[in-house]
Amino acid sequence: MGLLDPPSAKDATAILDDLARWRLRQWGFVIVRGTYSSQLKWDKFMRLAQEDARDYFEQRRMLDLYGKMVWTVVEDVAALDGASLEVAQEKFREWLNGEEGRQDMEGSVFAEEGVVYRGPRYSFFLFVDDESLESVVDEAKAREEGGYVVKIVAKGSREGEWQEGGEGGEEEELDEDDRERKLEDVRKRVKVNTLVQVYACLLDVNSWYILPMEDGVIYI
Highest taxon of the source (predicted)? Predict the structure, then answer.
């Protein structure tokens, strides 16, 4: 590869093909906002995430695809400020099954009757709580080995969900490592500068269970 050649566009091409396959107009993880203590910090977080994604596509000369990346944010101060994963999942499902979600799918295969929606945009979401926000916007924390991360969460279902708080007898008996492994079926951590690559991996939603992990963070 020559010095001026762009890096691999495999992941970007996979996303582009997926948009065409399902007739989707946009892509990108929906963000559920779980912290409202500082609008300045939130704006910085969004700016950094968008800059990382834009840089990815600029290096690959595919800015048209970045233009289809939509940064949808689900906000509800009363319900989501300091909320648990379960509450965040419920708010994401409300968005997905409500008018905004239907508009998001408009014109796609998923808007057709009887078609079950799939893919990363409608199966997973980013949950940005206080911990995640500080991990990204605090420069010292961002430089740490496990820093610059946000939570990525499976949308789950209303029945039989694993609860982060561990309510119920069996979960309470698990040791910390076992609890973390079980929780990873619902929630993982992802570096903000790898969101595009992780999105591409999750075009096959079953890849969620086999994503490479290192110290609790998706390693790509």
Answer: Eukaryota
Which stretch, 1-5, 153-157, 160-164, has highest mean pLDDT?
A: 153-157
Output the DSSP codes for the chain: --TTS----HHHHHHHHHHHHHT-S-B--EEEE---S-HHHHHHHHHHHHHHHHHHHHHTT-HHHHTTB---EE--HHHHTT--HHHHHHHHHHHHHSHHHHHHHTTSGGGSTTPPP-SHHHHEEEEE-HHHHHHHHSHHHHHSTT-SEEEEEE---SSSPPPTT--SHHHHTS-HHHHHHHHTTTEEEEEGGGHHHHHHHTTSGGGGGG--EETTEE--
Identify the pLDDT of residue 161: 44
Nearest-CA neighbor of 26 among 113, 135, 126, 101?
A: 101
Instruction: Confirm whether 5 is domain-assigned.
Output: no
15-21's contacts with Cβ under 8 Å and 24+ in sequence apart are 15/65, 15/196, 15/199, 15/200, 15/203, 16/62, 16/65, 18/119, 18/203, 19/68, 21/109
Domain that holds residue 75: 10-218
Assigned domain for 14 exists: yes
Q: Assess if residue 4 is contained within a domain.
A: no
Could you read off the pLDDT of 59-69 as tens digits, one per residue?
999 999 999 99
Domains contained in the chain, number: 1
Confidence grade of residue 4 (pLDDT, cut at 50, 70, 90): low
